Amino acid sequence: MGEAKRFFGEQFPELFARGVAALEERAAAGSEGAKRRLDDIRGARGVAWLVLDGEGELFLRVDNGRVTRVDSKPDDLPVRVAVGLPAEAADSFVDEAKRVADLGSDTAAYAAARTASARIERAIGDDPLELHLVVTDTPDFDEVVVRIGLNAPAPPATPRFTATIAWEDLEAVRTGKLLPQQLFMSGKLRLAGDYSRALQVAMQLMQR
Fold it and tell me: If phi over 0 gives left and psi between -120 and 50 gives alpha, with beta otherwise, what is residue 152?
């Protein structure tokens, strides 16, 4: 089993659960922000589908503030996000993330828990949003194409639009050195194709 499949199938659900538990403690102590975040996380319902080219796939079920790995796509929940990329590239990304991040920290656990969001689900709506994210100058590859489908039946072979970004700029966003909107305003994120709906969703989320 590759590093990416092991992480998302085994470690990520545990990390997510730690994040939710930490938020529950803060909410019980009276934190209104933690209560709102918990409501948002618990309201998210769906399936995350990861396709690792050359290694297979895995499914994560998200429901009522829990993430569990399941053997096949559940029939009772919609696919909220379907992502496909080469397994070797996914392993490299996970290795790099583990190298620079402390997965034992509350910060990492909170970040994992926040990947589930009813607010984001409502903003995206029911129509598919399909794109290819092209990451250039990665540590191990010249270029990696990540196929992303939101509310789509599978990772898209043909996207509605393409977003291109350098690895170092993506890392700057992950570490908080750059805000997502700064990428677009500075030209570090290059978009091609019909990305009008993606911009509408992004604007809606930033206004809340």
Answer: beta
pLDDT of residue 208: 53
- Give one DSSP letter per residue of 115-183, joined into a string: T--HHHHHHH-SS-EEEEEEEES-SS-SEEEEEEEES-SS--SS-SEEEEEEHHHHHHHHTTSS-HHHH
Domain boundaries in the chain?
A: 3-206
**Count of C-beta atoms within a 10 Å radius of residue 182:** 14
pTM to 2 decimal places: 0.90
Q: DSSP secondary structure string, 34-86?
A: HHHHHHHHHT-EEEEEEEEETTEEEEEEEETTEEEEESS--SSS-EEEEEEEE
- At residue 146's C-alpha, the angle toward residues 53 and 198, to 5°, is 145
CA pair distance 4, 60, nearest whole angstrom:
13
Q: How many CB atoms lie within 10 A of CB 8?
A: 21
Cβ burial of 16 (10 Å; 0-12, 13-18, 19+) is buried
| CA separation for the pair 82, 80 (Å, rounded) | 7
pLDDT > 90: percent of the chain: 69
Could you give the C-alpha distances from 198 to 53, 62, 192, 202, in angstroms and in order? Answer: 26, 23, 12, 6
Query: What type of residue sits at position 61?
Result: R
Tokens of 79: 């696919």
